[in-house]
Amino acid sequence: MHGNGTKHIQRVTTTEHSVKGGEMNFTRSGLAFLLASLLMTRAFSQQSIGDFDGQVDVGPVKHAGSCSYDPVTGQYEVAGSGTNIWFDRDEFHFVYSRLKGDFILSARGRFLGNAGDPHRKLGWMIRQSLEPDAPYVDVAVHGEGLTSMQFRRAAGGDTEEKKSAIRGADIIQLERRGGKYVMSVARFGQPFSSESLDNIDLGGEVYVGLFVCSHNAEVTERAEFDNVRVTVPAKADFTPYRDYIGSDLEILDLATGRREVIHHEGGSIQAPNWTPDGKSLIYNGSGRLFRFDLETKKPSPIDTGHATANNNDHVLSFDGKQIGISNHSPELGGKSIVYTLPIEGGTPRQITQRGPSYFHSWSPDAKWLLFTGERDGNLDIYKISAEGGEEIRLTDSEGVDDGSEFTPDGEWIYFNSSRTGRMQIWRMRPDGSGQERVTHDDLNDWFPHISPDGEQIVILSFLPEVPAKEHPFYKHVYLRLMPIGGGEPKVLAYVYGGQGSINVPSWSPDSRRIAFVSNSQ
After folding, report:
1. Bond prior to 364 in cis (omega within 30° of 0)
2. Of the candidates 75, 71, 106, 68, which has an alpha carbon nearest to the alpha carbon of residue 188?
3. Who's near 39: CB < 8 A, 6+ residues apart?
4. Overall average pLDDT of the 441-448 stretch
5. Rounded CA gap, 407 and 404, in Å?
6. How far apart are CA 254 and CA 179, in angstroms?
7. How far apart are CA 208 and CA 213, in angstroms?
8. Residue (of 425, 416, 442) closest to 483 by Cα position
9. 191 neighbors 443 (Cβ within 8 angstroms)
């Protein structure tokens, strides 16, 4: 518990006396009630909840708030009273931690019940202190749908507001970048709409958390939050492929949209494959491959012989008996070369003779491999026999062609191409004929992965400001889902990641879940 919790309780009482002056006439029973309320507030503010340090009622609320956390679903249920978060002082329930530096707060939130005040509020808040008149910045979603960034620049000052064009947002994100604050909101499934705020100083260490305000002193409102993430991003001057931050191995359930972090490492792990038996994930880290047992939640290394400089282009055969890897072989100038080996591990068999070659897919019958080859300065898609031999060029366009993957029926190869100036998803026949564009938007789409039932595709989408030919680390990205036959992609997850998040096929065998990697310091 941070020492400010007790100090806050005392100062709130003093402040309310000074504001209301002679209008406050406590009876003995009223004073006893107030003291009991303060003691209760102090007690629950010292309890940790989920990933938060504690909880507290800010301001003289009439009904004490609460928070519960379900570790199985990752859901928080926050109950709060309070007249408002507005003008020069606030009343609400706050579930908080203390943070310094830059961070990204993200969650999906909704009110429980539809009959509350239209001005009730839920959201994320960054606050200088727990005083009711403290400077703050928040993202507030109102009961009637208004979504806005609210802020108070100085203690006791009036609240100001920047309204979002999105109404009824349930995806809420608030980011601090030095003295800049960015609100990004969406209705689940849609891309973000963002607003920013500059030149507001909340200090170095701040209170950060989820809030609920009923906008009616007589009632208590409840809200549910899931996919709650507090992300500490990479430093702005980090050097790619040298400076890494932590990695969270996550599983996303398509039916509910809920995400579960099943493993964390302080360094970089990337690109989880899901084994066809549904029991394990395979990912790379520090040049090695690891099998992560989904029952024991423990990783173990896979023996890849001399291939100990593997990148994140590794894929299992459809029957799960073999794995193809891309290894930077010192004897071949350090260029990435494709090898295959048994899924249990063993001696790698070299397939491509030239590099760089980055492996991406097996054919369903395991007779052909697809890879991206850099030849004469151009990145194109090639296929080669699983026995090795001559490589066959399938694309020949300006820009980057990458991320090729066979459909389970072997009829199509999906891939991403920057030939239009924007990275988009394309498809072609196995001989390279019939190349046609699949996505048509302003995002940069990479790595199409087809579900085992052949009905849907998951793609990784970078925002327009990222150059089309790049898929860098540590960016705001979307995981998006679209029907195999085409249509508008729907956002499945709002992720801080990028390179290594989902470079390889990572569907569960039943086509109901996907695995991916997100990042945070």
Report:
1. no
2. 106
3. none
4. 97
5. 10
6. 36
7. 16
8. 425
9. yes
Over the stretch 375-421, which tens digit does the pLDDT of each residue have? 999 999 999 999 999 999 999 998 999 999 999 999 999 999 999 99
438: its two tokens = 């699949």
Residue 441: closest CA among 427, 471, 421, 467? 421
In the β-sheet with 136-142, what is the strand arrangement from edge to edge? 54-58, 92-100, 205-213, 121-127, 136-142, 147-152, 160-163
Greater confidence, 143 or 18? Answer: 143
CA 490 to chain CA centroid, nearest Å: 15
Cβ atoms within 10 Å of 102's Cβ, excluding its own: 17
With 70 as the cut, is the pLDDT of residue 65 above it?
A: yes
- The amino acid present at 195, given as its one-letter code, is E
Model pLDDT, residue 331: 81
Q: How many residues does the chain have?
A: 521
Among candidates 133, 147, 146, 125, which has minimal Cα distance to 211? 125
Both structure tokens of 422: 């924007």
CA distance 222 to 387: 61
| pTM of the predicted model as reported, rounded to 2 decimal places | 0.90
Strand residue runs (E) in 153-231? 160-163, 171-177, 180-186, 193-197, 205-213, 221-231
